[in-house]
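Interim report to the steering committee. The following record documents the input for Amidinotransferase (320 residues).
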Amino acid sequence: MPLYTHVNSPSSVFCKSSQTPSAVVLIRPHHFIANPETAADNSFQTMISGQDVNDESIAFQEVSGVIDVLKSHGVDVHVFEDESHHRPDSVFPNNWFSTHAGGHVAIYPMTAVNRRQERRIDIIDMLKQVYRVQEVVDYSAQEHDGRYLEGTGAMVLDHVERVAYVCQSRRSDPVLLERFCSRFNYEPVIFDASDAKGNAVYHTNVLMCIASDLVLVGAKMIRDDSQRAELLTRLKATGRRLIELSEKQISSFAGNMLEVQGGAGRLLLMSSAAYHSLTKKQIDLIQLSLPIVKVSIPTIEKAGGSIRCMLAGIHLSKRL
C-alpha cells in the first residue's frame, strides 16, 4: 500500500471562508496503540495498558471509514499511511503542523518524546508541491529547552478574528505562544480549564470548536468566574451562535469537532459519541448553520482524541 494517496472529489471547490479548511491531511495508522507517554496528563485517554489484540485492525478500519465518509461528501483529503510501530499518536497530525492563509506553515515542538517522530518531511513536501507555500516556520528545536506548543490541539484558532484561544497546560508554553502569535498575527487569549477532579484540560481543542457561524465550548470547565465571563464575552462579540457544552458532553468529545469544506458546502464533522451526547436543541441549533456529519471512531477515541485531532486542516491556496 502506498504511503500517500490523494483523494480529490471532482465536485470539491475552494473554500471561500478563511475559517474553513479547503482540504485536510489524515494519517491512517497500521499499528495503532494508545500512547503510554501521554497518559499522565490526558484524562480523556482511557486505553493505557492491556491493549486489545484487535485494536490495530479496528483502528485501521475506523480511519478507512472516515476517509470514505469524507470522500462521499466531496471533501478534499490527503491520506498518508503510517506503517511504523513507533508512532502511537500519528493518527493526530494536527498537533505537529498547521497551515495558514498566505502560504505559511508552522511545525511544532511536542511534549512526549515518542511523538516527535510524527513529523514527516513527505507531508511538508506534499504541501509545497500541491499548494502555494511561502515559508515554513519550525519551532521544534524548542523541545531542547523544554518548551512545547502542540499546534491546533493546544490552540483553537479563530482565523477570521485572528485570535488564538489557549487553555494553560504544559503542552502550551506561554513564551512560544507569544512567538507564534507575533509571527502569524493572532491575539492570544489564555485561560485555565479543568475537570471535576481538578485535572487541567490537556488540549484546548477538546474544550471548544470555532466554526464560521457558531462556537461550541465547555465554558463551565473554566472554573474562574472572571476568566469564564471574559471568554464568553469575546466569543459572543464575534457574532457567532454560541452553544455551551456540559462537562459530560466534553468527555464525549463534543468539543472536538471541525468544520470542513465539502463538495456542496460547509460541514461540521463530529464523532458518533459526540453526536449522541448532544441534546436535540443543540443539534437543531447546529443545523441552523450547517449540516452535521458523524463518524464512528470509538477505538481511536480511547487514545484521548477525536475527529478534530485526526484532521490537519489546509488553509493554503492550490498551485495552478
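The chain is about 25% helix and 20% strand. The committee is asked to note this result when reviewing the revised timeline.
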